Amino acid sequence: MTPGEEEQWFYWRRGGAAAVALVATLVLLGMVVLVAMTNSARDQALEAERHAYDVALLTRTADASIARAEAAVGRFALDEDMKSSGSRYYAQWRLAEQQISQLERSVSPDPQQQRRTAELRMLFNERGKQFSDVARYIAGRQKAYGLSYFYSISVKQNGVDDVGTRLRGKLSEIANAERAGLSEKIEESQLFSAEADRLTDYLSWLGVIVGLFAIFMGYIAVQALRLNAAARREAESESERAQALEQAVRDRTQELWEANQALKAEAVERQAAEAQLRQVQKMEAVGQLTGGIAHDFNNMLAVVVGGIDLARRRLNGPRREVMTHLTNAMEGATRAAALTRRLLSFARSEPLLPERLDTAILVGGMSELLDRTLGERIKVKTELANDAWPVFVDPHQLENAILNLAVNARDAMDGTGKLTIRSRNVTMDSNAVGDIRAGEYLVIEVSDTGCGMTPEVKERAFEPFFTTKAVGKGTGLGLSQIFGFAHQSGGEVGIESTVGKGTTVSIYLPRTDAQASNVRAHPAMQARAEDDMTVPGARILLVEDDPRVRTATVGALEDLGYEPIACASGAEALALFDSMEFDLVISDVIMPEMTGPEMIREMKSRRHDFAVLFVTGYVGEGEGDDLVGYDLLRKPFTVSTLASAVASASARRPSESRPIGGAAAAG
């Protein structure tokens, strides 16, 4: 090779080396740029991971704060510690609001998440309003309604999730959306990491090759390796941080589970304590009721026993004096019977004989009775709706209820004032008054201008034997009887009273669609002649298990001109029934071995050509249905009352008596 050729080769080699170095430098620079871009993308992916974990943590903490606030509202509604529960609820709710605000700032770059957080804020505000309503009801001494409302906002309504469920669902939706994005970012981060690793390998090989040509290229490669190592260490650090965050979330979840278990255990203990308290209250009410009954019956029995004893001692004395003592004894016995009737009405065990009733006619027909009872100094005014809805109630019991309210109003006005009786149609929501059900009602209001009731008296107005009247002026069963009658008729009773201005008692009776032709009127509402009505010579089968009542009834029937045959049980009555014919069967309702309705059912299966009259002093649960369609005489009764009942039952044709099993309702 000539020197020229060597010089030319040198230049070519130097130029080639320079070209190779330039190309290698450009390739190296390109690879360095690619590595830097890959690391930047990985940093962005890691930042997205941290953001997703932060959002998930915020949703969990917000959910926990809302749950603790809801638990505090529950304790506030149960009145365990109103001040402590109210403070705890306010603190937790404010904390939840701060956490949701932080959540809104965190997801602000994402339009979809912004929309979800806006819906979350609406649900949060709605839930806060519900909790505020609960607290307002409780603070307003409407604990029962507040507690009922709290339970109603915590469960599904007509298959629709409550606000709390939707609020927790929206938090879960936000967290799930972030988790979905987190999965994509993790995959992207892994992709960029793999790409960075692959480019680093290429860069290392190129650095070894180019290092033979230029130290600078080797230096750049070393720097690239250092940057790569630093990025890897940072990735490892972020991975450890993510694991620590996940462990913190697991620990927090465990704390929430333990808190939930504690709340469940507390709820069980509270239920047990409430059940024990209810039992104590029941026993206290039974003791109060027993003491009241014993006190009033002792007073009445003292009149009866004293009158009979004095009459017996003076049998040979003046007739007027004997009749005076007997009259006093009869009056005491009548008062005892009235007290028993009120007790049965209070216990909702008095059998009602309801019928479709036009209250305007009934109240209008009571004007003379009210004027005679209240006196001339009480002005009675009626405001009755012309289009009043019909009701299905016992007219006799409704008359007694209105009369009791009028007498109470007279006493509250001290014999002078204005009494207003009005009726109107109303549509009620559920629990608007007491435990009333939603529907259409006719309300009968009795208003006075008397002294009114204090809040303490108003709360106890329906308690048995509670009265503010002087000793001997009342038994305390009037409003209790009205309460029992209204509930037994499917309605409710409400009281509005202002001290010094007067009281209004409202009886809510449900509207009925029953037809008048399908209902037999209560015997007490039918016109009766005051003279005894008898059908002389009629043969009567009397079934009564009490020998003294049986003897007295037989004597009364014989005095009335009937032919009574008495027995003590249903089995004896069936044997007598098969051996001879009877025009009328008089039977007690409650008897051992076989009740009166069961006995009549058996007799009706054999023969239908006889009338039936039931006699009872008490009708137990389930017995009232069997009495519908038959005449009923309540114990105790007088001879004239017995005569009227026997005549009424005998006058009914056998075809009119419906089978006992066909009764639909007792009312």
Short summary:
The chain is α/β, with parallel strands linked by helices and 667 residues long. It has helices at residues 3-77, 82-106, 111-139, 143-152, 163-211, 215-313, 319-346, 359-364, 367-374, 395-412, 455-459, 478-488, 547-559, 570-579, 596-606, 639-651, and strands spanning 355-357, 378-383, 391-393, 417-428, 439-447, 492-498, 502-510, 539-543, 563-567, 584-588, 611-616, 631-634.
Q: Can you describe what's shown?
A:
GO terms for molecular function: ATP binding; phosphorelay sensor kinase activity. Its EC number is 2.7.13.3. It catalyses: ATP + protein L-histidine = ADP + protein N-phospho-L-histidine. InterPro entries: CheY-like_superfamily, HATPase_C_sf, HATPase_dom, His_kinase_dom, HisK_dim/P_dom, HisK_dim/P_sf, Sig_transdc_His_kin-like_C, Sig_transdc_resp-reg_receiver. Keywords: ATP-binding, Coiled coil, Membrane, Nucleotide-binding, Phosphoprotein, Transmembrane, Transmembrane helix. The chain has four domains: 275 residues, no CATH class; 41 residues; 164 residues, Heat Shock Protein 90; 135 residues, Response regulator (Rossmann fold), CATH 3.40.50. It starts with a helix and ends in a 16-residue tail after the last helix. Strands 2-4-5-7-6 form a five-stranded mixed beta sheet. A five-stranded parallel beta sheet has the order 9-8-10-11-12, sandwiched between helices. A two-stranded antiparallel ribbon has the order 1-3. The longest helix is centred in the middle third of the chain and has 99 residues. The C terminus is likely disordered. α1 packs parallel to α6 and α6 packs antiparallel against α7. It has 16 helices and twelve strands. 61% of the residues lie in helices and 11% in strands. α13 links the parallel β8 and β9. The chain is an alpha/beta fold.
